[in-house]
Amino acid sequence: MPEAPPQFKYIARLGGLLALFVLLGYCATALAGNASWGKALGLGALRAFFIMGLSGTVKEGNPLAWWTLLIVLAFNVWKGVNYTADWTTIATGAGFDDWPSSIFLGILGAGNWIFGGFMILLLLSPEVRKYLHLIKEQKRQI
Question: How far apart are the C-alpha atoms of 131 and 102, rounded to whole Å?
């Protein structure tokens, strides 16, 4: 089996950081009163473990894990863009009633947007795609 490029190490580490941002986002939603704490922590932990698990197993060479992580990250980046748009609305003076939790969600959304986007770029890098293709060819020969 060929040695994995260093991008996979970054994908796994950023996956853990992104999972933390996702979990904190659910906690901020509960803090704002939009969901119960039990539901927020349960769903947040489930999504966080899902992202961490996918980001760690992409290195195995499973194309389904690669595509699933790419789709999950695309939705996560879109959610981050939405939270960041809410944050800019607050910053321009439109304001919300619960502005502290909205600002916290905006900061977490910016983190989702930045780290998720960087992970997408790493997943689409030529080295990662070449490695996954090599793993696929090796599995095909067995």
Answer: 41
